[in-house]
Specification:
Elements (H helix, E strand, L loop, with lengths): L1 H35 L33 E4 L11 E5 L23 E5 L5 E5 L1 E5 L3 H4 L8 E5 H5 L13 H14 L4 E9 L9 E9 L5 E2 L9 E2 L5 E6 L5 E3 L6 E3 L4
Length: 266
């Protein structure tokens, strides 16, 4: 009997030690992710359109001019979210290859066939969300690259619930198409274009997207670019900065999960 009790006690001690090891490994992993390896947030340039409580670890600053095409994508964060996409190119360096099907689902991806009202006041239905490129395909040539994709409502990404409308100044497309035209009209100059999703805490969807753009001449001198609209403000390195809201008028987005509810009924 005494030997069995001793054996049982040793077994309990081993189990306890194993539990302590598991806890220690978990604690070390948590400390690495949340303390040691966590990048600090950086100050955001002032704008009346900047929402409160949002942040990024990506500094807004043009890339050093090298006279060659550059594309820099930040690694995804610990939640799997895209962090920052940055390109510097001239018109002749835009992609020429055909676009492959887009099937990568960024973290927080959900989609819904929601009602919306068109300009005539008629109620129709369209898919709410799109897989939004940070640096647009017309510049990057990237389609299924997770470091360059976030969930965005179609209205915000393409300017309309269904189809495209680049006259919508609250959309990504408004700025993308005009920057593309700027490049075409200045074939010997470079465009530096940085796009940064801005999150609130651990939410999966960005509340806002920050655009920063500046032209660069042959000598590396910064050239201010203004595309129109009240959202443009001065940024670092001669850049123009724009803060856009990741939203759609026909829906309420749950930024923490990526789910949504329809605000328009039939």
């Amino acid at each position: 009997m005494a030997k069995r009790k001793h054996s049982s006690r040793k077994s309990l001690q081993k189990s306890f030690i194993s539990l302590l090891v598991v806890i220690a490994i978990f604690a070390a992993g948590w400390l690495w992710t949340n303390v040691v390896n966590k990048k600090p947030t950086v100050p955001l340039t002032s704008s009346s359109y900047l929402q409160t409580g949002i942040s990024t670890t990506a500094k807004q600053e043009p890339l050093s001019y090298t006279g060659s095409r550059q594309l820099v994508l930040a690694d995804k964060d610990s939640l799997g979210r895209a962090v920052d996409a940055h390109i510097q190119l001239k018109n002749s360096q835009e992609p020429k290859k055909g676009r492959e099907p887009l099937n990568y689902d960024p973290v927080g991806w959900h989609n819904y066939n929601f009602y919306y009202k068109n300009e005539d006041g008629n109620t129709k239905k369209a898919w709410l969300m799109s897989r939004g490129h940070l640096v647009g395909y017309q510049f990057s040539g990237l389609n299924n690259e997770g470091r360059n994709l976030v969930p965005e409502p179609a209205w915000f990404n393409a300017g309309n619930y269904n189809g495209m409308d680049d006259s919508n100044k609250e959309s990504m497309l408004y700025y993308e198409n005009r920057l593309d035209s700027w490049l075409a009209n200045h074939p010997n100059y470079y465009l530096d274009y940085q796009v940064t999703p801005l999150y609130k805490g651990n939410e999966l969807l960005p509340r806002q997207i920050r655009l920063a753009y500046v032209g660069i001449d042959k000598s590396g001198k910064a050239l201010q670019i203004r595309l129109g609209g009240s959202r443009e403000s001065e940024g670092n390195g001669g850049s123009t900065v724009v803060y856009l809201d990741n939203k759609s008028p026909n829906a309420i987005l749950n930024y923490a999960t990526g789910t949504a509810s329809n605000t328009v009924s039939k």
